[in-house]
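Quarterly update from the structural biology core.
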Amino acid sequence: MKTIAFKTLGCRVNLYETDALASRFKAAGYDIAENDGDADAYVVNTCTVTNTSDQKCRQAIHQIRRKHPEALIAVTGCMVNHRKEELLQSGIVDYVIDNERKSALFDIIDEHFRTGHSDPEGYDRDLFSYQHAFDTFHTRSLIKIHDGCNNFCSYCIIPMVRGRSTSRPANDIYNNVREVVAHGFKEVVLTGVNMGRYQYESTNFEQLVENILEIEGDFRVRVSSIEPDQFSDCFLGLFQHEKLAPHMHICLQSGSDDTLKRMHRFYTVAQFRDMCERIKAFRPDFNLTTDIIVGFPGETDQTFNESCEFAKEIGFSHIHTFKYSARTGTKAASMPDQVPEKVKSERSEVMRQISLENKTKYFEMMQGRSQRMLVERIDSRGIARGYGENYLPIVADGKDLERNTFIDIRLGEIIHPENEDKMAFKTL
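Predicted structure, tokenized:
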């Protein structure tokens, strides 16, 4: 039987799709190999959100070809939609499969091994025809609810490579949740390109989440990266439900109104502040994390400082900092006053330090509090690792514990490793 390996770069939507594809191959009898191991075929699920993303994808593809000259390589994901001709002409990949046909990847590769050839263009376009991921690379089960985006932020290439906003049928989502819970998953993570704009027939995002919380089973629900919207009090009230994890990664991008306007974002700093204050009013311990872009064209010392002060004010416990990367075809790529790379790097380090200070303060505030830890793995030394409902990393004595089970603990000593981004709690 053939062996297949997967290399995934980029967002949680890609991770969901890879998990589902790997499960499909395994169900058909294929062996799944580590992405750096020996295999008959390699799938590279790519990202193209920044120039760095493109570079990492190229490096991954070239590395696989150098190490495995006879293997089949199939490349899919957003880089395909952005740079399809480049990949086709590279001469080092066998199949180039766009996002719209990614769900057919099993059929494409399986046909190749059966007949010696396959034509990806002959398969139907479908963004949601993935079987549920029953045997994944992760403890949590990702559930894709949405694809595409209609926002067209001035710096972002995603609408060009993922297409317009499309919502998955609600009943398909409910069935997907029931399937993975029945298979034993204890946490489901809702993911999508711009899932706050979910709307399928009469069901919006708020109603979708509320209905998922009513599904029977001992599991919790986590909302992954989401765009800032004026969330209703009814939606925020859902975070008092024991199944809904009090954590959201809400993409700020800048704490300066001037920069937000040029980014073509659809909110102001004051509106974002009001949203955060309302969230904290419902759950004072709510864990807010975010993305911030530094070095956007025209960003001055003053507007950058506004972002810094706002990040401190809100107290995001983690800030995923991006250095602005010009993407061909976006409005920002041709804007005047492009920021030098050296300045971007300096500002990135400043924001990273703010993130670390915020994280330390949030962790200190949470010490001594109760959490329901999901045990995700137990290493060879008997140390259990996992996360609480607030998305706080926890280590515990793994004696008498089992992977993929909940335990009630209290947060004790804070562990400060050399990489401070990896801070975690010991249990009391």
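The radius of gyration is 22 Å.
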